[in-house]
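Before the break, one more example. Copy the sequence into your notebook; we will annotate it together after we see the structure.
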Amino acid sequence: MQKNLSRIKYFIKKISKISKKNKKKTAFLIGNTSKSNNKQFYLTPLREFNKVILFGAIIYNEKIALQISKIVDGKVDYIFVDSEKKIKTSNIYIGDAANIERTVRENISKSNLMTYKGNDLTVEALDLLISNRSRNEIKGLGSKKISILGAGNLGSKIALKLVERGAKVLIYRRNLKKLRLLTKALNIIKPDSTEQKISYSNNIYKVVKNADVIIGSTDGIPIIDKKMLLNSKKNVFVVDVGKGTVKKEAIKYAIEK
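Here is what the structure looks like once it is written out:
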């Protein structure tokens, strides 16, 4: 952990030099996730845009949020904190629910603080990406088969968004009981006037068979393999919105094709 904290200090100095040279704002993003060993965190890549240069960290508990906040406050123009409450147990507020946003708010006084919801940004970005790929087609996403592997919070939101566009959405999750409940709930939530319905299967190869699009939304579990690409349509579009959902063999095969 100390190594990554030192890297934060190093990258802050690096983006500060770039920002002064190119007259750009600087920003640091603090994201949070429930999947962890509660000890480590990792840094996101440094990204430079027209008006801002930024990087960030994905963290697993409030004590790490506290340490990072003290390091970056006043060193960047903006600090963005993920406001989604994904962590159950607090390791700072005894007897209270975990709250990364609160921890950051209490320890930021110099930089401009803003909040965001990481999963919602991902859903909007993915929706824009996939819909734009079909912009020259008369039906758009209508009737396209889209397979979503990993029907958690993120996968479920994506499924709802795409079925509303008229796509044939199939979802997969290892826990069959939750998979059935999610499918039922999503079909209740979607507009009554939307004719398409979300389907499910606990057979992952059945879900991806003849798919136009395969979306991997598992958290740190490589799930998309070569066999899935062979079972899908020739020009299947594969998107990884999780954390490394595509196996190396599948990437190699896709490059070859």
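The first helix runs from residue 2 to 22. Strands lie at 25-32, 42-48, 52-59, 78-82, 112-116, 145-149, 168-172, 199-200, 213-216, 237-240. Try to locate both features in your own notes.
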